Every structure is written in structure tokens, then in C-alpha cells.
Amino acid sequence: MGTRGPVPNREDDLARPRSRKGSGEQEAKRGTMRAVTVPRADPEWHPIARKLYDSLKTSGQADFYQNSDWAVAYALCDDLSHYKKSGKRSAQMAQTLYSAFGNLLVTEGDRRRVRIELQEPEEETTSASVLAIADYKQELGLS
């Protein structure tokens, strides 16, 4: 899990990059991402557990998930389902589950603590040269 304390500011909100601040952070070690197979949600799960699991599939942090992450997410959603269906709920169990989901970087605050920021996709723009050629074709009556 990331550092404790307040959620760090987004990189865009800083006056200068963190790398220039002289912090003692080391560069991350690199590995190879493997092909991923996402397990199907259990149809018997509580609706909230199923919704959370399905939302993980379409969330940006899923780009970083490997098979082991999906296995942990599956196990946690199974536990969450049992917790939500039980008549007797424990505050300690709820805290444990939400803490474990934090390890999967489920919320923006969790991601920012470990310096992962999801960006808006860039709009695809047509280059000026392509637009100019299209205009010439239209003027010449070729399109």
C-alpha cells in the first residue's frame, strides 16, 4: 500500500514535478505484463459486490491488473457478498474489506497515494494537412 497521510495532489497541480523536489524516491523496477484472463463474476453474489467487480473491468486501473490482481478482486468480492448477505455485520470485517480494496487501487485517493493518475483520453484530431487536402478535393469537385 502507499504512504499514509493526506492524499497527495495530482501531478498537474504541482508547481514542479516531484522528481525535481529532491525526494528520495527510487525509480520503479520494471517487469513484463502478461496476458490476462478476467474471471466471470459469480451470479449468486450480492448486487453491490457484482456491481463493484463489474466496474473494475471498465476502470482505468484495470490496465495495470494481472491475473493475481483479478484473483484477489474475485476473492474480495466474494467476501463482500457474504458480508452484505449476512444478518450480522462486523465493523472490523467492513474495515478489512475496504482496506483490501484499497490495495487494488479502487479509488482515486488510493491511486494518487502510489502516484498513479488516470488521464482523460486525448481527442483524436485530424491534422491540418489532411484537412487542407480534403478542402482542395472539395473545391475541385473530386469528393
Walk me through what this model shows:
- The protein has 143 residues and is mainly α.
- The mean pLDDT is 83.
- It contains five helices and no strands.
- The chain has a domain at 42-118.
Label the overall shape.
elongated
Mean pLDDT: 83
β-strand number: 0
Report the uncertain regions: none
- Which structural class do you get from the secondary structure elements? mainly alpha
Distance between the termini: 57 Å
Radius of gyration: 22 Å
Order of helices and strands: HHHHH
Q: Sheet with the most strands?
A: none
Proportion of residues in helical segments: 40-55%
- Per DSSP, what share of the residues sits in E-state strands of 2 or more residues? under 5%
Number of helices: 5
Which keywords apply here?
single chain, 5 helices
Q: What's the layout of helices and strands?
A:
Blueprint (H helix, E strand, L loop, with lengths): L46 H12 L8 H19 L5 H13 L4 H6 L14 H13 L3
In short:
This protein is an all-alpha fold. The chain has helices at 47-58, 67-85, 91-103, 108-113, 128-140.
